[in-house]
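Predicting holo structure, S-adenosylmethionine bound.
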Amino acid sequence: MKNTILKGDALKMLKTLSSDSVDVGVTSPPYNKQENKKGWLVKNVKYSGACDKESELKYQLDQVAVLNELFRVIKPGGSFFYNHKTRWERGKMIHPMDWLRQTCWTVRQEIIWDRMIAANIRGWRFWQKDERIYWLYKPIDNNYIGKELLAKHALLSSIWRFPPERNNPHPAPFPLILPARCIYSILDKKSGVVIDPFAGSGTTLVAASLLGKNYIGIDISEEYIAVAKKRLRNVTQEGEILMRELEKHVVRKTFKERKANGDFVGRFREADVVISPPSLF
Ligand SMILES: C[S@@+](CC[C@H](N)C(=O)[O-])C[C@H]1O[C@@H](n2cnc3c(N)ncnc32)[C@H](O)[C@@H]1O
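Done. Tokens:
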């Protein structure tokens, strides 16, 4: 089953897929934002085919079930990128790691997505302009370390800085750069199958298609699937955004060249870059 979008509940649809059949996944699930947590600057997120208003316990159990089914479907050595954020309920922080540690996955890295804009400008906390992307890994024979990324991908670091998507009718899309970076960093030029179980407007599938990979999408909403299908019929229109991302995956000077040049080759230390602030007193 390749280059298709399945309409239905993510967990039910995942159960129809073969084990160890997919190389990479990227998703941003509904965040259980209770549909009433509107910031001053942002629109309320309401999906056309699903209610984003569960008890937190049920929400987390559902997420664990979907993530474990994805673990079955993804090949050993495969990766899944899970975009989420920290939330607060009556002043208490809810962290994605609260349920990620209950899944079969090895959490390989926590990436900070600096969205460069805060969704709410109240001062209960410092303005939240980050989301997280968890790189989850399915080990081969209990080897939790896995293979190295190529240097041209690894140099993109654990902080990703780009704004949220604005040109999209979906209420909560991520920008094309996000899944493109994940997929390209893992598969590079290799062929493979990419999955997004909460595909929405199909951003992950568009990235996969532009990168020459096969894809499987799932979403519960007919309306968003129609948007995704339209985008996939016209993928070349988004090719320029992808090209701009690929240009970042380049090693401009190797370690050897920097050393020969007398450039900085040491390990990154904050002390090397932070200039001491003037004393306040
Ligand atoms: C945050 S959005 C994903 C947006 C997507 N990344 C994009 O760029 O368009 C979450 C999606 O999950 C879908 N959804 C909600 N509950 C679902 C379920 N139980 N099964 C499958 N899809 C579901 C919603 O329709 C929505 O499109």
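The chain has a mean pLDDT of 91.
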